[in-house]
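I am still getting used to backbone structure tokens and would like to learn alongside you. Would you supply a protein for us yourself, any chain you care to pick? Start from the sequence, derive the backbone structure tokens from it, and show both lines together. Go ahead whenever you are ready, and we will take it from there.
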Amino acid sequence: MLVDASGTRNRSTSEGAFQGRLWDPGEDIVSPYLWSRGVKRIDVVVLSHPHEEHLGGLFAVVRNFPIGEFWHAANSATPAYSGLLERVRQKGVAERTLAAGDELERGGAIVRALWPARSWRPSGLPSHDDSLVLRLSYHGASVLLPGDVSTEVEQALLASGEPLESQVLKVARHGSNSSTSPEFLARVNPRLAIVTGGAGGFGNLPSPETLERLRGRGIRVFRSDIDGATTVQMRDSSLAVRCYPGFLTTLCRFESGDRKGGVLTPP
């Protein structure tokens, strides 16, 4: 399952190999990474919501891989979103429009949609609160993917009674202070959190307030702008995290019951 595919398809202003040229994160980063891991087919592609930094790379992914299903929520019919749906349909990929309460099983893993509510109607323009919120669970391990929902949706999730507790949390809105409220963190109670984007591409994000809330609860934080690509491996009650900042690799192990961040050991 691939959830989103990053960035904006435009001219890069950052330093490095892409500086000053047009680039496509789906073609230049996501697809080559998947090929390097031996992935030749994607069973499920998920769009959390149709903002460009989530949708942009999916055009290349849909072009480059056989795909079993495409999952999304009900979203505003923007040109980019409509164009992606057209490409999905041209390839004959099966579609699912998910809403809260939908639950699917894939390979022994349970994927449950927690948001949007079935009564939710997307606004005219893409909104963070249109995000598809998913909780993935497998043999007692769980990951929460809240898209970019705000504290208002977090409150609705808290009131819904849906299961939220998860060992791993993908932090909403790249660590903005408009999400990841103390009440939400207390219910999810993650052992580690991953912040995508960061200062390299999202200005002043993640916010110091959000980082303080996370670390104040003893949650180990990994940031893609600092730690690079982050891989979390779950086995029983332990978590092993590998980070790839450039050409370096570090390994951090989380033992059962350890909420202090684990001990760094050689890869």
Summary: The helical segments are 25-36, 52-55, 58-64, 79-90, 151-160, 182-188, 208-216, 224-227.
